[in-house]
């Protein structure tokens, strides 16, 4: 068995290390680029324009870049994405310190950087299941470790970026950000093996759009994946704006301090790490339906705690519970996709699902922003809590969620009645 061989898990750990470095770099970008805009323009409106410019290309490249990832190869795509991101980020301080960086040029660099980011993330996610299989590790545990690396980078990266910006300026942090992508690309290219077919040029009889359509057909043909996608997109629309819109308003309006908002976000990061760690220990033994629906249910119930606007420590504690319960849904969803999506089309399927999941978030932010302006904070909190409670109740009646075992596990308990194939949801 591969897991017993010396060094069998080394490529997996190398991938996780590359991810962590890259995640830290992304956190630096999230902090340093808006601050750079404020430093150089002094305009909050232009800062908002830059933030919006970074969202749309993530959706577009997620939808249309997955086919290119499948064709180019997962390792090669991940390395090229890191190298291109390093060059793109480095151009911001380089141009600013030399010939100058007009605002339209900055927008172009931000747009280009976002276009490159989604295919790279898709390629990493597509390469990961093969490394996990070679390491002999349960998918649930490996995906939990992936999420721990992501959440820990958020906990460490944001405050570290703030300290470095305060001490050395945004330009310096952007140089570090570019370096992080170089380090990640070196780790991936030297320590993470690719599939053998990636080492030679491959040709495909199908066209780009035929491959793209095939990915959409696959998603549409698997009931469980369809319902996971529906749940995640609706959940993002209904709940995620609490962190980007509602909590900032609550902190300023009720507590008058950005420090209180910082406590809430620290609670989110800490709870997410704890939730992922707990799932890593015993997630593969837990009923999947319980993890999925239970996570959304606990999140909804914690929103009701916030409705009366209690002290900040109560809100923070509810966010910790929220994150601990909901975070296992992320590695669980990753696991289900890895089990069911054929290796040859991971890029287009993972990329499409990633893009659709992000597409509803801006709409939710706009909706809750208008609600806050129109009906006030307290009424908006009631709406938030009510609609999010309706989601897990509805999930109880979805047939595809009644049996979410992997196709192989399902086959082993049905005497061959269900074949271990990727398509066709279970019920």
Secondary-structure topology with pairs:
Layout (H helix, E strand, L loop, with lengths): L9 H32 L2 H10 L2 H17 L1 H24 L5 H33 L3 H30 L1 H22 L16 H14 L1 H17 L1 H15 L2 H25 L5 H19 L5 H15 L2 H12 L5 H30 L1 H19 L11 H6 L15
Helix pairs in contact: 1-2, 1-5, 1-6, 1-7, 3-5, 3-8, 3-15, 4-5, 4-7, 5-15, 6-7, 6-11, 6-14, 9-15, 9-16, 10-11, 10-15, 10-16, 11-13, 12-13, 12-16, 15-16
Q: What's the short version?
A:
The protein contains 17 helices and no strands. With 427 residues, the chain is mainly alpha-helical. The protein is globular.
Integer average pLDDT: 83
Can you tell me the residue ranges where pLDDT is under 50 for at least 5 consecutive residues?
197-203, 410-427
Largest sheet: none
SSE pattern, N- to C-terminal? HHHHHHHHHHHHHHHHH
Count up the helices. 17
Shape: globular
| Strand segment count | 0
> What distance lies between the first and last C-alpha atoms, to the nearest angstrom?
33 Å
Q: Report the structural category.
A: mainly alpha
Radius of gyration: 22 Å
Helix content: over 70%
Strand share of the residues? under 5%
Protein architecture, described:
The protein is an all-alpha fold and 427 residues long. The chain contains 17 helices and no strands. The C terminus is likely disordered. Helix content is 80%, strand content 0%. Helix 1 runs antiparallel to helix 7, helix 10 runs antiparallel to helix 11 and helix 15 packs antiparallel against helix 16.
């Amino acid at each position: 068995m591969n897991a017993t061989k010396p060094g069998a898990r080394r490529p997996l750990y190398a991938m996780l290390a590359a991810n962590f470095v890259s995640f830290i770099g992304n956190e630096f970008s999230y902090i340093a680029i808006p601050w750079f805009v404020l430093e150089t323009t002094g305009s909050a409106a232009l800062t908002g324009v830059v933030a919006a410019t970074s969202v749309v290309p993530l959706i577009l490249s997620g939808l249309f870049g997955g086919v290119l990832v499948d064709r180019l190869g997962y390792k090669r795509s991940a390395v090229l994405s890191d190298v291109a991101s390093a060059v793109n980020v480095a151009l911001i301080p380089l141009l600013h310190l030399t010939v100058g960086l007009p605002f339209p040029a900055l927008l172009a660099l931000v747009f280009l950087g976002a276009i490159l980011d989604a295919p790279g993330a898709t390629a990493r996610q597509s390469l990961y299941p093969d490394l996990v299989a070679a390491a002999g590790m349960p998918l649930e545990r490996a995906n939990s470790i992936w999420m721990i690396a992501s959440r820990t980078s958020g906990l460490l990266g944001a405050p570290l970026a703030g300290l470095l910006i305060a001490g050395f300026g945004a330009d310096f942090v952007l140089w570090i950000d570019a370096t992080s992508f170089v380090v990640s690309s070196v780790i991936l290219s030297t320590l993470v093996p690719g599939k053998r077919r990636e080492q030679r040029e491959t040709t495909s009889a199908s066209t780009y759009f035929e491959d793209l359509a095939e990915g959409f057909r696959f998603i549409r043909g698997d009931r469980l994946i369809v319902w996971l996608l529906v749940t995640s997109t609706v959940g993002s629309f209904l709940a995620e704006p609490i962190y980007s819109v509602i909590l900032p308003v609550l902190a300023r309006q009720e507590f008058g301090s950005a420090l209180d908002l910082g406590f809430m976000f620290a609670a989110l990061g800490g709870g997410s790490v704890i939730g992922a760690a707990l799932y890593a220990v015993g997630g593969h033994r837990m009923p999947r339906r319980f993890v999925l629906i239970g996570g959304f249910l606990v999140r909804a119930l914690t929103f009701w705690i916030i409705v009366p606007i209690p002290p900040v420590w109560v809100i923070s504690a509810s966010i910790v519970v929220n994150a601990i319960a909901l975070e296992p849904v992320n590695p669980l969803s990753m696991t289900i996709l890895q089990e069911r999506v054929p290796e040859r089309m991971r890029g287009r399927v993972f990329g499409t699902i990633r893009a659709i999941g992000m597409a509803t978030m801006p709409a939710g932010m706009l909706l809750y922003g208008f609600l806050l302006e129109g009906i006030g904070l307290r009424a908006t909190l009631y709406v938030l809590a009510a609609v999010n409670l309706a989601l897990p109740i509805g999930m109880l009646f979805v047939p595809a969620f009644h049996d979410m075992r992997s196709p192989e596990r399902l086959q082993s308990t049905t005497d061959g009645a269900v074949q271990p194939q990727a398509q066709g949801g279970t019920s």
